[in-house]
Input
Amino acid sequence: MKKKLFYYLFAVLCTATLFTSCSDDDDNGKNNDDQTEVTDISGNYKGNLVVSINGSAADPVSQVISIAKSGDQTSQVILSLKKFSFAGQLVGDIEVPCTVEEKDGVQSFSGQKDLKFTTEFGQMLGTLPTSVSGTVRDGKVSMKIGVTVAALGQTVDVAFEGDKMSGNESGEAKILSFTFDASVESNAVVSSDPVINEENATITFEVKNASADDLKKLVPTVVVSAKATVTPDSETEIDFSSGSVVFTVVAENGSSREYTASISGRTSVVNYDFETWVSESHKPTLGTALAYDIPEGWRTSNPGIVEMKGMVGEKPWSVLKITDSDRNSSAAQIQTIDSNGKSILGFKIPKVTAGSLFLGYWKTNAKNTLNSTKFGVEYNNSLGKPVSVKGWYKYESGKDYYTCEAPYMDNCPSAKKVDGAEYVDEYSIKVALYTTDAFDNSGYTDCLTGEEGELNFYTSSRVVGKGGVEGGSTDGQWKEFTITLDYGDKEFDPNQKYRFAIVCSSSKDGDKFWGSPGSKLLVDDIEVIYKK
Output
């Protein structure tokens, strides 16, 4: 017999023994008519059951035993357990008559019986000699059961300790919350908040691409109903490498409910930490090439600053690297600048130039500057479907706000300063996945841009999924953002070519040349989450 089956058979054996060995229907539990009346011990007893095989003890299992008088005599009781489960196996309802004796304020019972057992697989275990002894003292029950299995050379010992319940205990056995604390290192592989389905008693969550070893060390925090307990314990390492784990909640009155917590999907994560910056140069239409730094993998609006420097003089870069003590790392600072607003040699310089940091490319279009930013890089379909973008940001609005009238292709050199609560600059972070027919090494082909209408990377009919956040000043504090891509009625097709864009702007209406010079958006640790 295989060892695993052997242990299972004895788990079932011990369970049945606990409740049937107290009495033999024909031989044990005799009640003499002249027997002295004993203290009534009827009631429900809640405690722990421990099974040991050859001295090796299993973990305690919470159980409730019900004792009820059999007729009018307190010396005769019915010992019962409803819907009993042990070691994950449902045994059923068990009811056993027992005889009670009392001495010096202690009620005791004992007995022995040869029991026949059959597993749930229909295998006969034979008839096994079983002995039981127990006491009740001041509302506390203590039992010991012994089973001899001569054929297998095994001794099974069962111990039960429990307290009599008042009858007013709560019967609620619910998981109220199930979370993974991000500060616990082993929880770093969890990529979504767990969702509890109370109707189906399920809990689902997603994880990043993780090894089996990573999944063996997840530490959930489980909050249950008042005075209830949960197994496995909250805030302990749980092995999710098989994909799911059953959590059993036992109410104060002993009733229980099982919840199945399972991994519903796996995600990939691409992180942009803005620690690595590289040098890039741009040669303007007029003048010599200038170099500046950009975050690795990103593009910026700095080429536009290079284009203007020869005509309006020195200006600060629209995107630059900064070190922030609160983040204890490098971050990207995106800022809106006052670019003077002039018309020189047929070139129109805007009054307000919003800084932008984006995934994509730059190709100067002096007549239509909004077409210079080519948003979107080639998307790797093997990563799966992009579902969300997370990161950290800090924002400070500039003082004076400027607007201008359309058409915006004229770059609005004559923008006007305006006042009012509605004219306070705000940042924007937008994300879009859109279809494309071609890729090339330059990245310029078939890209969407900042223009209005069908060419806009956010409003074009080619956009499959999109999302964004925007807002005002954060009062000097870093805040976390999460953007969930909305696919509407469109489907992600792994066989389709896509471009993927993230665009961070220091002025949300910068594409209209509106905004406040001096507005600053800082971003750090941007993550893109993909689901397979």
Residues 3-20 form the longest helix (18 residues). Confidence is low (pLDDT under 50) at residues 1-34, 86-92. The chain is about 5% helix and 50% strand.
